[in-house]
Structure formats: structure tokens, C-alpha cells
């Protein structure tokens, strides 16, 4: 059996090694959520920044849920392989800055101790939209979110992100230690501002003075993150082994493109990420909106239509000329809702997105992107749709996307096979649809009633809701995907 990746010695010459000496690298960052996206984005940016500019910016990671990735990272001394794929081939990079991995549920005290260590200057997050615990109707704290409810009841032994961050900051304040900077890297608009609001609302409920201290002393920079990263498969692990000569159970694969725009407000220092290509700016919202609406909005549209049309991967959907053209039409519609974005030509940006989606070397499952629709739709599709309608557009591609999500939400494909929705509100959706006849009018009416999801500007627009109902009816009746 092939030896496991545990050190940088004697790897195959095709493996590209970190450009610095890992021995003696000290931790400066604690990262929550060491999933594939973090391993393809934050970690390699930090790896490259350390290679160019040095600094004690090693990363400790903590998983708040499952143990596998954390355990495998520890077994591999934090090392893993990042495969970068395009049609010209694959390169294998060994990524070096991870020093240790924690499994929070196994030992919450250990993670709290790390959050209280003055060496930790940044606590970054890639935990996905649903982990934050915000109420999409108010934008504030969702007191019914299981982690929020549990952590408010038991603040010294948290289990969710907000609980950990607040308790970590409370410990630092009590010990007179400078705060860390919480850094959200999830696909939410104004992710730093969202995180700040949740942290402050949570803190206000347990200790108003702590809330004030956080407000005064802790910056919450927003970021725009981008790199298409499919879930790893056996092919990923096999290829990693082929390129490095070592077995790697946490290898990931990703595309060549990578982008990170970060608001440059840090309490306590930061790596020189700009030396690795990140853009440090005063204000990130224009970039975030562009990416969420043009990339992620089109991605969701293609994922739902593609999945119900029987396409396994986004690249296959892009082979369908009609769907590729629809994606481009949607990107244009999304661009029309945006203010100018500094330094970016939106036409060129859209062309690049089309090429990235079509990358034949990336097998990105439509089912993966379809996950968590109720958490993704608002910022990707519903807010821009409402703005488009207000600007006099028919918002037709948005109606197609929403109809496709509704068709997907029925949970059964055209061959009558059931699939799991994988959405935190799947139970509610199933209950709402239980006795509803399977036609466009009835199903859309039921789903428009999902509390807090659709803004009144959409549900109150009769022309648009009828458009959704008609398109949904076509998707329910037709045995092949219609050309919208
Ligand atoms: C995708 C994103 O799964 C999804 O919802 O739209 O993960 C997308 O691949 C990334 O945001 C690209 O940066």
C-alpha cells in the first residue's frame, strides 16, 4: 500500500511543495470549517502569502460537526494536496500552513482555549450559509436556530459559530487580551456585517457590556470569495496519489481561477494576502454583489434546471446550447442590477464565467450546487429579481430560476425516482406540498408561502408570480427541458 502523506520528504517530482520552511511556523489563525472550499481558497492564499512575505500565520482549523477531515489532517500533519485542473492538465500543490485540527464537539474546552490564546489574531469562517443562524426575514439572529438556542442557554459550552466567537471574545476581554478579527468567508452579501450583527445581538442577550466592548473593538471585515471547488471523489484521491506518490485522504481538486477581495480592517494584524493576489479594499460590497448575482445566481439556475433535466455536472449543462445561452442571458440580467464594479468590465467577467462553467476538467455536480436552496436563493436570485422588477424589467430569467427550484423542491425526478432535497427547510417544504396538486399554480402558491423566504416585492407582483407558475407548469408537464 502507498505510504500516507505525512511529510514533504521524497514526494514524486510532480508535487509542488510549499515555498517556505514549515518547521517553526507558528499559529496566527484559527479557522472554523475546514471543508473543501477552505482548502482550495483560504489555505492556499495563506500558503502563498507566507511563501512571499513570511509571518506567523500558520492555521489551526476546527470542525464544528464531523470529525473525518480534522482527523485526517492531523494524521497527515496538516498537509494535503490541491489538484488544479483544466483541459491542459492537472498540477498538484502541497499546501502547508495547517498546523493542527480540532474537533469541537469532541473537546469544546480545547477550542475555547485556542480562541483565548493571544497568538490567535484572526478567526476565519467557511461554515456555509445555514450555520450562521440568521433569520432571513429580519436579517437578525434566528432564536429558533438550534445552535443559537442551545448556545444562548449554555454560553460557556457553545456548539455553534456565533456561540464560539462570542465566548472566545468574552474570554479575551476578561483576560485583557486584544480581540481576534472574525473573518467570514462564506457566500453571503456583506458577510462581515451579517456576522457582526449576529454576534452583537447574541452578546446583547448575555452581557450588554460585552456587546459594547465588541462593537468598539472588533472589526468584522467583509470578503468576496471565489473558486469553483467540487466535492472530492475517488478520482481526486487517485489523482493526488498519482501526482505525489502518497495517499492523501483530504486531497481536493479545483479550477485555476481564484479570487479574494477583502475589506482591510483588522484589529490585530493579518497575513500579506495581497502578495498572493488578494485585493485589499475599503469596501467590498460591489464585488460581492457581482459575484453572488452573476456567478452564483447563474450557477443555481443551471443547477436546478440541469438536475431536473438529467445533467449530472455543470459542464454537461453547458454543452446544452440552449441552457448555456440562458445562463449568459441571466448574467446580463444580473449585471443590469449592479452598480459599476471598480476595475471590472462586466461583459468580460460574464465571458470568463461561461468559460469557467464549461471547464471540461471540472466535474461539479448540479446536485451539489442545488443543496440548501432556501439559504442561497435570497442573495443570489430573489433580491436582484425584486430590484430588476422595480427597474421595469420582466425579470424573466429569475422566474425561470425560481420555477426550476420549485420543480426541484418536489423531490422526484421525471422517472418518478425520489431524491433528498438536502436543505435545512426540507421538512417544512415537504409539509407545505403534502396535499398540493402537482400543477404550476398550486405548487408555486404553496412555496411562495414559505415563511420569510420570498420578499413581498416578488409575491405581491402578480405578473411575475404568474410567470413563475406558468414556467413551473411547463417544467412539471414536459418530458424534456423546454427552451425558455
Ligand atoms: C456554488 C458555489 O455550491 C454552490 O452553491 O454556487 O459553491 C460556487 O461554486 C462558488 O461560490 C464559486 O466561488
From TrEMBL:
One of its GO terms (molecular function) is oxidoreductase activity, acting on the CH-OH group of donors, NAD or NADP as acceptor. Residues 28-275 form the Mannitol dehydrogenase N-terminal domain. PROSITE patterns: MANNITOL_DHGENASE (PS00974). InterPro entries: 6-PGluconate_DH-like_C_sf, 6PGD_dom2, Mannitol_DH, Mannitol_DH/Oxidoreductase, Mannitol_DH_C, Mannitol_DH_CS, Mannitol_DH_N, NAD(P)-bd_dom_sf. GO terms for biological process: mannitol metabolic process. Pfam families: Mannitol_dh (PF01232), Mannitol_dh_C (PF08125). Signal peptide: none annotated. Keywords: NAD, Oxidoreductase. Residues 284-473 form the Mannitol dehydrogenase C-terminal domain. This is D-mannonate oxidoreductase.
Amino acid at each position: 500500500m502507498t505510504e500516507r502523506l505525512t511529510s514533504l520528504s521524497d514526494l514524486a517530482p510532480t508535487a509542488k511543495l510549499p515555498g517556505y520552511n514549515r518547521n517553526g511556523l507558528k499559529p496566527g489563525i484559527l479557522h472554523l470549517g475546514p471543508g473543501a472550499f477552505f482548502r482550495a481558497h483560504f489555505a492556499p492564499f495563506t500558503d502563498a502569502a507566507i511563501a512571499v512575505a513570511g509571518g506567523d500565520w500558520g492555521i489551526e482549523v476546527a470542525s464544528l460537526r464531523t470529525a473525518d477531515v480534522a482527523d485526517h489532517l492531523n494524521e497527515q500533519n496538516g498537509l494535503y494536496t490541491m489538484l488544479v485542473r483544466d483541459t491542459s492538465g492537472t498540477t498538484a500543490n502541497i499546501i502547508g500552513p495547517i498546523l493542527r485540527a480540532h474537533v469541537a464537539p469532541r473537546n469544546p474546552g480545547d477550542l475555547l482555549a485556542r480562541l483565548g490564546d493571544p497568538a490567535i489574531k484572526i478567526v476565519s469562517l467557511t461554515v456555509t450559509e445555514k450555520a450562521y443562524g440568521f433569520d432571513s426575514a429580519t436579517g437578525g439572529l434566528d432564536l429558533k436556530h438550534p445552535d443559537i438556542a442551545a448556545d444562548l442557554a449554555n454560553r460557556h459550552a457553545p456548539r455553534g459559530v456565533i456561540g464560539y466567537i462570542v465566548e472566545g471574545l468574552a474570554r479575551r476581554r476578561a483576560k485583557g487580551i486584544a480581540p481576534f478579527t472574525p473573518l467570514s468567508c462564506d457566500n453571503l452579501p456583506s458577510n462581515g456585517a451579517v456576522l457582526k450583527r449576529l454576534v452583537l445581538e447574541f452578546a446583547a442577550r448575555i452581557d450588554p457590556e460585552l456587546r459594547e466592548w465588541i462593537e468598539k473593538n472588533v472589526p468584522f471585515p467583509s470578503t468576496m470569495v471565489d473558486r469553483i471547488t467540487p466535492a472530492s471523489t475517488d478520482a481526486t484521491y487517485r489523482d493526488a496519489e498519482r501526482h505525489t506518490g502518497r495517499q492523501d485522504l483530504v486531497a481536493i481538486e479545483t479550477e485555476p481561477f481564484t479570487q479574494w477581495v477583502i475589506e482591510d480592517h483588522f484589529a490585530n494584524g493579518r497575513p500579506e494576502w495581497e502578495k498572493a493576489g488578494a485585493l485589499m479594499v475599503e469596501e467590498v460590497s460591489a464585488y460581492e454583489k457581482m459575484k453572488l448575482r452573476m456567478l452564483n445566481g447563474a450557477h443555481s439556475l443551471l443547477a436546478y434546471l440541469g438536475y431536473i433535466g438529467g445533467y449530472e455536472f455543470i459542464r454537461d449543462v453547458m454543452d446544452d446550447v440552449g441552457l448555456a445561452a440562458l445562463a449568459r442571458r441571466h448574467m446580463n440580467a444580473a449585471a443590469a442590477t449592479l452598480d459599476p464594479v471598480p476595475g471590472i468590465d462586466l461583459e468580460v467577467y460574464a465571458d470568463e464565467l461561461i468559460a469557467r462553467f464549461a471547464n471540461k476538467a471540472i466535474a461539479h455536480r448540479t446536485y451539489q450546487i442545488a443543496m440548501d436552496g432556501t439559504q442561497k436563493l435570497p442573495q443570489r436570485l430573489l433580491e436582484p429579481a425584486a430590484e430588476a422588477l422595480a427597474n421595469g424589467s420582466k425579470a424573466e430569467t429569475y422566474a425561470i430560476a425560481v420555477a426550476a427550484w420549485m420543480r426541484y423542491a418536489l423531490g422526484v425526478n421525471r422517472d418518478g425516482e425520489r431524491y433528498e432535497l438536502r436543505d435545512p427547510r426540507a421538512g417544512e417544504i415537504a409539509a407545505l406540498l403534502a396535499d398540493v396538486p402537482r400543477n404550476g399554480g398550486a405548487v408555486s402558491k404553496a412555496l411562495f408561502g414559505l415563511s420569510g423566504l420570498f420578499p413581498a416585492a416578488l409575491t405581491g407582483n402578480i405578473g411575475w408570480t404568474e410567470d413563475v407558475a406558468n414556467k413551473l407548469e411547463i417544467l412539471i408537464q414536459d418530458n424534456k427541458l423546454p427552451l425558455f
